[in-house]
Automatic annotation (TrEMBL):
Protein name as annotated: MFS transporter
Organism the protein comes from: Chitinophaga oryziterrae
GO molecular function, one term: hexuronate transmembrane transporter activity
InterPro entries: MFS (IPR011701), MFS_dom (IPR020846), MFS_Na/Anion_cotransporter (IPR050382), MFS_trans_sf (IPR036259), Sugar_P_transporter (IPR000849)
Keyword Cytoplasm: no
Length: 434
């Protein structure tokens, strides 16, 4: 297929990618609302950093459990029904925040939101594996994963305006409505390639052009248990990669508004250019990171594992400078360093998700994504407790900046450690035979 003009085989798979992109965008808009409204809500509800840490942990813990359950469920019921179930639950949960009258009420809404939103990535990664050959998967993943960053760019513009103009309740309601609008398009546009009426035979053959995956189309799909997957080294490579790095992104997502508010006294009742720049950089990183390994495979003829590993090592190194954030008082230098780190994380994310479909048959992809995603969410649920305790401790001492300094050092080291663990468990990312 090398050198083939892809316009002659059709591009419907990129419409599917666009659907996944918009779903991920909505997912992150809904998720980020509470972080953007934190300065407002902590005044209304008298939250401490520990209270907010507990709310974030409630979301993280339910998200972790949901990932494990959804990962297995999607491999059983399929991608179409999996997304329908997921987005209905998370959209209802997003709107339910507007009814919260206490910290416990917010916690309950976050639990439901976490359960619903946990379906996004198992479904999206499995959809990419179903609709794209290996040489395009990292790029497709990078594009849909950039929706996380677009959501993070749109949210700081829209959410503060909605909250400041109509009240914080309306910010939760209208972001929840977006999910139901997207659902209409998903129901009418999506189906797996083997059953899709608008897919040409040429594009179908191109999608299934990886010779080591031919059996995924025709063979009966075996039942695979979690314990069986946990006995495979490649599963643990993905688990450690997610466990050590997901909490860092969640820290960026939930605490950056608070960091800029505390350190530089920014007003989050109106759109914020600093966060917009950071999350725009993340978008570039997500697409660029996915493009890099795909380009190395397609144009340089690198083996898949070499392209993924080299790309991820580069991205891990790019996050190290975040260690020095607290050494400067210039807000734009801080924005540049954190923007680079956020971009590198999303580039890392585009590739680590793709390693699952590189190493596992398609009928096990969602289950493995669920296991690794749960590990990342467990880290994400525990890390906020550490963050909340550190910041509260140093705030009482009158030096909250020292707490942030420790946290940024952790962020800068996490990815190199994660890369080393992944290399230890899957040095050549050998394909699993189940």
């Amino acid at each position: 297929m090398k050198g083939m003009d892809t316009t002659t085989i059709g591009r419907y798979r990129w419409r599917i990618c666009a659907l996944l992109f918009f779903a991920t965008t909505i997912n992150y808009i809904d998720r980020q609302v509470i972080g953007l409204l934190k300065p407002m809500l902590e005044k209304d509800f008298n939250w401490t950093e520990v209270d907010y840490g507990h709310i974030v942990t409630a979301f993280s813990a339910s998200y972790a459990i949901g990932l494990l359950l959804f990962g297995r469920l999607v491999d059983k019921i399929g991608t179409k029904m999996g997304y329908i179930l997921s987005i209905i639950v998370w959209s209802v949960a997003a709107m339910a925040h507007a009814l919260a009258k206490s910290t416990i009420g917010f916690g309950m809404a976050r639990v439901l939101l976490g359960l619903g939103e946990s379906g996004n990535f198992p479904v999206a990664i499995k959809s990419v594996a179903e609709w794209f050959p290996k040489k395009e998967r990292a790029l497709a993943t990078g594009i849909f994963n950039s929706g996380a960053n677009i959501g993070a760019v749109v949210a700081p513009i829209v959410v503060p305006w909605l909250a400041g103009t109509y009240g914080w309740q309306q910010a939760f309601i209208w972001t929840g409505v977006l999910g139901f609008i997207w659902l209409i398009f998903w129901i009418f546009m999506y189906e797996i390639p083997a059953r899709h009426k608008m897919l040409s035979s040429e594009e179908f053959d191109y999608i299934h052009s990886d010779h080591d995956e031919v059996k995924d189309i025709t063979d009966e799909k075996p039942r695979i248990g979690w314990m069986q997957l946990l006995g495979i080294r490649q599963t643990w490579a993905f688990v450690f990669g997610k466990l050590l790095t997901d909490p860092i992104w969640w820290f960026f997502l939930f605490w950056l508004p608070s960091y800029f508010s505390t350190t530089f006294h920014l007003d989050f009742t109106k759109p914020n250019i600093q966060l917009i720049i950071i999350y725009t950089a993340s978008t570039i990183g997500s697409i660029g990171g996915g493009y890099l390994s795909s380009w190395l495979i397609k144009s340089k003829q690198w083996p898949v594992f070499k392209a993924r590993k080299a790309s991820m090592l580069l991205f891990a190194v790019c996050i190290v400078p975040v260690i020095f954030v607290k050494q400067t008082g210039n807000i734009w230098v801080v924005v540049a360093i954190i923007g680079l780190a956020a971009a590198a994380h999303q580039a890392w994310s585009a590739n680590i998700f793709t390693t699952v479909s590189d190493m596992f048959p398609k009928y096990a992809v969602s289950s493995v994504v669920g296991i690794g995603g749960m590990a990342g969410s467990i880290g994400g649920s525990l890390f906020p407790l550490v963050v909340g305790w550190l910041l509260n401790h140093y705030k009482l001492l009158g030096n909250i900046g020292a707490g942030y300094n420790i946290l940024f050092i952790i962020c800068g080291c996490a990815y190199l450690i994660a890369w080393g663990m992944m290399h230890l468990f899957a040095p050549k990312m050998e394909r699993v035979s189940i």
